[in-house]
Amino acid sequence: MFKERVKTSVIVLLLINLIFMTCRLWFSDGLWQENLLEMAMNLPVLRDMRGDSYSIPRERLSEPQKILINDGALWIAYYNTDAVFAPIMARTRQILEGFLRGETEERREITIEEWQRALGSVSIYVEYPITYTIDTLCAAMGIDSSDAPHDVSELCDFVIVPSDGDSEVYMILRDAAEDRAFIYRYAADSYNLSREDLSIYTENNSGYYEPAFSTGVEPEGVELDAMVLFSDSRPELSVLIPNSPLGSQENRLSVTEAFINNINTAGSRDNSDGVITYVENYSEIRIYPDGLFEYKAVSDDKGIEIADRYASDYEIVNAAIRFTENLWDRVSHEPLSMLVTSDLTGSESRRMRITMDYYFDGRPVAVSLPASGRAEQLNHGLEIDIEDGRIVSYRQLFRQYEPRSGERLGAEFVGALDYFVNNFSYRSGTVIDDIYIGYIDRGGAGVMSACWLARIKGDDVTYAYETRGEDAT
Fold first, then answer.
1. Which residue, 275, 297, 379, 381, shows the most beta carbons closer than 10 Å to its own?
2. Average pLDDT, the chain
3. What's the whole-model pTM score?
4. Does residue 88 sit in helix, strand or coil?
5. Which residues 6+ apart lie within 8 Å of 457 measured at CB?
6. Alpha carbons 456 and 132: distance in angstroms, whole number
7. For the residues 1-22, what does the mean pLDDT come to?
8. Alpha-carbon dihedral sign for residues 114, 120, 121, 125
9. How many CB atoms lie within 10 A of CB 140?
């Protein structure tokens, strides 16, 4: 055993040394070198050897969801699951960090039409999965917010316009809460990002991508967000088989003990519908046959304390993530594959709702459980209500997903768009925020095929267009 451990250590050291030497030989630019090293050191085997804890929800809290590159001739989309996403993200992140540190030279307000014209030229569009305040984004990226511009109240995307010859790099921010945008200019030579660089990311790519504002499509009865992305993508994706870790009595008891001081003194009962209920002085817990776990405190001051009552939104989110991951560790040896999906925009109220959703192989798994019996509707894999740093409500559909043979996506974007437009045209003022590929989990035991999902502005429900695809060969 000792000899095997020595061999493993030697192999790992040689691998690390090879990575360092390769980076030095291939790249003289410090940013790219740092990029590759960071990617290499985050490989699972090296991460495990370092012994550092790794949290998927925390590490990806400040990570963009999508980057859209326009080289002047075509758009190409990269998602955070694509292999080349990391180096592109590193370049844009460096420029964003400079903005948050107050390094821009000047700024002026522009119209949304000007913002769209900038997107139609050579540019990089960066989109986040949630909306932040500037202060919260700074906290998530580890940057002091004291020098950050606070012109926009909420941020969920931005545009970078690269330099043209000797010109400067620009950043354009759209206010997610108001119909306005701001353009910022960096000092000359602050960042090495030329228009020619963008062609590197688009020259060997194919496929059709175009944001809604550029297509001229105006469906009757509904409105499309300007950045709904049209595409001809029909990838081959795994079929998923869902199962619940709470099918085991040992796991059910282990999770329950995280919420109840003494499970032996708590009253319990098994109902005719298969729901297991625990009741103690300050809380009630219900565990449903499909793996839905519900905890509710009898009052806001009797919840489970996870953070100081005056903690910031960012501190509370991190405390909630730690609590959720510790709970998951009780039932699974695999890391918790969830991402935070609730906006971090602050509130006058002391109550905060945090939602997280499952991901499988980089694709979102939306949860949609309708209200039934005593259970209220569940629109996310996890919903946590926190009051003054205390969890007062915790609802999670405990799920693991096993892949089966893959199949090609059953429908093209246009078919999904027609479906959603027809289904929502009767609702006055409907705005479709996004249409994207993922899975939908309705709590059943049957297999799940990839499908088109849609989000509607002001609606917490995820909608699905489900058609069975062709088996991959």
1. 381
2. 86
3. 0.85
4. helix
5. 225, 430, 431, 432, 433
6. 19
7. 42
8. positive
9. 21
